[in-house]
């Protein structure tokens, strides 16, 4: 909707009028779509001031620390919902009735197995591969096994592919772990919850029954909820960009996984735990804080800062609570938690962090919880990818439902002008 306009005046040229669009919440956006035809592009590396699409899925107010999925606040979802209900909400826009939820869960659980031949695909990877490399490869390869849902122009195909990805991702993620430690793969169990089934596939073995601890199951479910979607972040934008060419959903989600892997994005939870281990004791904190503030040192406090949140990340608040619950349940006193809490305290009172509005983000506490559960740090980003798959799919589906337009940004060219070529190679 537009009732305001901005006028762009270039010296010596006729003014250009641009519509200002309003969403339901958040900033207005200037509609620059007609600018290209006027011989002008906008310049915004890193998209710090650019809305790349219209969306009804997730809303973030970074200054106020608000995160809403389909209008529902994240803390309410984390406290009163469960991951599969959140998935339903993200994908369908409304909270499900009991009957709709039961149907949804039945469909998810009926797709949890993967084609048996995929188990052989795993054996082509080195055992010491990073599980994210394996996850990325295997997810992309799913397109080779599920040909019957690849026509992105058919709504039913998009629907089936969405269920397949949501259902199979825990199976593939747990297989990445089992493969890395040389244990046999564990098949999914449809009598367990989404989180419980994942824990079982991670930790049970053919020679010993694994009983899912309800506190850990709930904690895993919360981690999944808190990572389920986050608007147009790097990996989601990657999925949308990949999907905008009409690429198949498995390839698009593999692209999202690749983007998520970076330490400035989903790789931060692994990097954060490594950093806490490196700090190791409270006495070492001032030295690391000093390094984080030093412009000549590339070191950053991992788990701090966010492109959008300039306030406490609302997910970090829930994560902090869950962290204490898990450590209590396991009767663990974790030195790293002590280091994390003191680091948080020191940073939040330091003018450098206050002025730049650098607060702990969701990854600050998740690594401690996952480590306490016995999950190795190389699996942290894999779990993030598993949780985020629903967000990626929701955005991919929304993009198709709204009608796709290939993403094709322009550039400010600063290279050579046209020049003569003469080869310097020997004849
Ligand atoms: N430690 C120390 N200084 C920091 C940090 C940090 N973690 N984050 C930002 N800063 C400083 C920058 O040096 C810069 O200072 P300056 O203005 O004096 O130059 C200022 O804060 C702004 O930082 P930018 O890098 O411009 O902010 P941007 O929005 O581009 O980056 C990012 C956001 C990538 C998340 C950044 O804060 C960071 O690298 N954090 C650590 C990694 C991390 O935790 N990532 C997880 C993000 S959440 C997620 O993906 C789930």
TrEMBL record:
One term of GO molecular function: citrate synthase activity
Gene Ontology biological process: tricarboxylic acid cycle
A Pfam cross-reference name: Citrate_synt
Swiss-Prot/TrEMBL catalytic activity: oxaloacetate + acetyl-CoA + H2O = citrate + CoA + H(+)
Entry keyword set: Acyltransferase, Transferase, Tricarboxylic acid cycle
Catalytic machinery residues: 306, 363
GO cellular component, one term: cytoplasm
Pathway: Carbohydrate metabolism; tricarboxylic acid cycle; isocitrate from oxaloacetate: step 1/2
Protein name: Citrate synthase
Underlying gene: gltA
């Amino acid at each position: 909707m537009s009732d305001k306009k901005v006028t762009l005046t270039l010296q010596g040229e006729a003014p250009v009028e641009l519509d200002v669009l309003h969403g339901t919440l958040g900033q207005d956006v200037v509609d620059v779509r007609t600018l290209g035809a006027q011989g002008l592009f906008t310049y915004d590396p890193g998209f710090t001031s650019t809305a790349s699409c219209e969306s009804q899925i997730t809303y973030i107010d970074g200054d106020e620390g608000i995160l809403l999925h389909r209008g529902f606040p994240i803390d309410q979802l984390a406290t009163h919902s469960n991951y599969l209900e959140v998935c339903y909400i993200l994908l369908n826009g409304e909270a499900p009735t009991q009957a709709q939820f039961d149907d949804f869960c039945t469909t998810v659980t009926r797709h949890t197995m993967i084609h048996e031949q995929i188990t052989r695909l795993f054996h082509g990877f080195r055992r010491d591969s990073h599980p994210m490399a394996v996850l990325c490869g295997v997810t992309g390869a799913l397109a080779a096994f599920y040909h019957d849902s690849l026509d992105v122009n058919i709504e039913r195909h998009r629907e089936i592919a969405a269920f397949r990805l949501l259902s199979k991702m825990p199976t593939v993620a747990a297989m990445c772990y089992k493969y890395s430690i040389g244990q046999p793969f564990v098949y999914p169990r449809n009598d367990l919850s989404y989180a419980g089934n994942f824990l079982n596939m991670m930790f049970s073995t053919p020679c010993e029954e694994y009983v899912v601890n309800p506190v850990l199951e709930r904690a895993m479910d919360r981690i999944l909820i808190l990572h389920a979607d986050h608007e147009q972040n790097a990996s989601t934008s990657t999925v949308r960009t990949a999907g905008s060419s009409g690429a198949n959903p498995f390839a698009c989600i593999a692209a999202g996984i690749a983007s998520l892997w970076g330490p400035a994005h989903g790789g931060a939870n692994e990097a954060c735990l490594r950093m806490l281990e490196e700090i190791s004791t409270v006495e070492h904190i001032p030295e690391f804080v000093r390094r984080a503030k030093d412009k000549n040192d590339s070191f950053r406090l991992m788990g701090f800062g966010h492109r959008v949140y300039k306030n406490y990340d609302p997910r970090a608040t829930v994560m902090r609570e869950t962290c204490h619950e898990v450590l209590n349940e396991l009767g663990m006193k974790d030195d790293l938690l002590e280091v994390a809490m003191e680091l948080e305290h020191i940073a939040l009172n330091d003018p450098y962090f206050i002025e730049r509005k650098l607060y702990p983000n969701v990854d600050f506490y998740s690594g401690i919880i996952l480590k306490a559960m016995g999950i190795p740090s190389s699996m942290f980003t894999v779990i993030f990818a598993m949780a985020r798959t629903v967000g990626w799919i929701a955005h991919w589906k929304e993009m198709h439902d709204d009608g796709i337009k290939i993403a094709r940004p322009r550039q400010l060219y600063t290279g050579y002008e046209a020049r003569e070529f003469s080869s310097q190679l020997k004849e």
